[in-house]
Each structure stands twice: as structure tokens, then as C-alpha cells.
Amino acid sequence: MNALLRLLLMAALLAVWEAGVRLLHVPIYLLPPPSAVFTGLYRGIASGLYVEHVWITIVETLLGFLLGAAAGLLLGTAVASSARFEYFLYPVIVMFQAMPKVALAPLIIVWFGLDLTSKVINAGLVCFFPLMINTIVGLRSADEDRVALMRSLAATPAQIFWMLRLPGALPSIFAGLEIAMIFALIGAIVAEFVGAQSGLGMLIQSMNFSMDVAGQFSVLFILSLIGLGLNTIVAVVRRRVVFWDPGATTNRLGRKSS
């Protein structure tokens, strides 16, 4: 029932958009109607143009996500586990993160070229910080009474980490992974805007030069579907791994997920 209501709401929004553009005679180069957008989408898919670029952007996003997730988990664990590490390195990480990645993207393109490597690095840089913060918060949220109890039972720091701190941090870590996945997609697209030979970002730039606004909207629609799909994959894994967390098994309407 909820899925049907979602579809009806989307259909109603599209109908209002279509009617508003036509009744107000909005030029197509400013805001194309949904019919023109879906026509451009069909042509791009039927010709095979979108398929190649979609695949390249997804590969860049996934590889960048893996790179950023690894860096975020490692640095987050190091900061949460060592006060000395936090004192010396954490300010440097924050200062680096404060640099706009749009400004860093041209340098990354110069250093690593126009191929896949530069897009993966930029995607990883964009997505690692949210995961690092969530990892730090999650690892530090362990109940100190339980930590003291395990120490009294002669548990080693490694045992405390694997048996107490990490399981308790998994809900926060997976929340960070959901955010990081979307940020990785954004980072890949930003890098493609700056310089690329293929990918959906490059395709949007090309359509911008030719004033194909309907085509740009169709690519944006594809990007939104990719983002939704990737986020859903992480959410499904989260429900399977962190099955004891109510936030992982309950959707936003407060009902249990199937």
C-alpha cells in the first residue's frame, strides 16, 4: 500500500510539472516538461549512449567508496583508540577536509590524469570523512562500565575492541557508510565535471554545451536512481549485519522492514 502511495505521489508531481510548464509556456531550454525528459532518456538508452557512461560512473563510485571507507575506518579507529594520534593528526585531517573538493579536483586531475584513477581518488576523498567521524563516535560510545568489567576479567585491549567496542559501533559505522556511498557518487561526478573522457558527469557537460536541457535532466534522473540503488544496497546489508539495532530494522514510518 505504501509503495502504491509513493508511485501515485510521484505521478501527481510529474503531472503538475507537465501541466505547469505547458500552461505557463516555459521555454524548454529553461525547464523541459517530463515528457521531453523521458523522451531524451529513451533515446539515450535505446542508442546505448547512456549504458557505457552509467557503467563507468558506477565503477568510479564503488571503487572510490571502497577507498574512502577503508581510509575512514582505519583513521577513525586510530583516532578513537589513541589520544596521541588524535592530538597530532586529527587537526590535520579536519583542515584537509575543510578544503573544497571542487578546488582540489583540478589538481587531482593534473596529478593522476583523466582516467579512472583520478575519479576514484576524488570520490574517496569526498566520502571518507563522514565515515571516519561516525566510526570515532561509535567506538567511543561503548559503556565504560562494561569496559571496566572486561578489564577486571583480564581481557586484552584487542578483545575489548572486537567483543565490545566494534559491535557497539556498527550501527554508527553503517550509518556513515550510507552517507559515504552517496558522497562517493557526488565526488565521482565532480571529478568528471572537471575533466573526463567518459562518465555521466562528462555527458552532462557535453549536453550543457549543446543546450540539451532535457538530456541533462534525463542524466540527473539516472544519477538519482543510481544513488537510491547504491544507498538501498548498503541499507540492506546493514539490516542483515546489525540485526539487533532497532534503527536498522525499522523504516522511517516506524514499521518493521521485511
TrEMBL record:
<dbReference type="InterPro" id="IPR000515">
    <property type="entry name" value="MetI-like"/>
</dbReference>
<dbReference type="InterPro" id="IPR035906">
    <property type="entry name" value="MetI-like_sf"/>
</dbReference>
<feature type="transmembrane region" description="Helical">
    <location>
        <begin position="87"/>
        <end position="114"/>
    </location>
</feature>
<keyword id="KW-0812">Transmembrane</keyword>
<feature type="domain" description="ABC transmembrane type-1">
    <location>
        <begin position="54"/>
        <end position="238"/>
    </location>
</feature>
<dbReference type="GO" id="GO:0055085">
    <property type="term" value="P:transmembrane transport"/>
</dbReference>
<dbReference type="Pfam" id="PF00528">
    <property type="entry name" value="BPD_transp_1"/>
</dbReference>
<keyword id="KW-1133">Transmembrane helix</keyword>
<feature type="transmembrane region" description="Helical">
    <location>
        <begin position="173"/>
        <end position="194"/>
    </location>
</feature>
<feature type="transmembrane region" description="Helical">
    <location>
        <begin position="120"/>
        <end position="142"/>
    </location>
</feature>
<feature type="transmembrane region" description="Helical">
    <location>
        <begin position="54"/>
        <end position="75"/>
    </location>
</feature>
<keyword id="KW-0472">Membrane</keyword>
<protein>
    <submittedName>
        <fullName>ABC transporter permease</fullName>
    </submittedName>
</protein>
<feature type="transmembrane region" description="Helical">
    <location>
        <begin position="214"/>
        <end position="237"/>
    </location>
</feature>
<keyword id="KW-0813">Transport</keyword>
<dbReference type="GO" id="GO:0005886">
    <property type="term" value="C:plasma membrane"/>
</dbReference>
<comment type="similarity">
    <text>Belongs to the binding-protein-dependent transport system permease family.</text>
</comment>
<keyword id="KW-1003">Cell membrane</keyword>
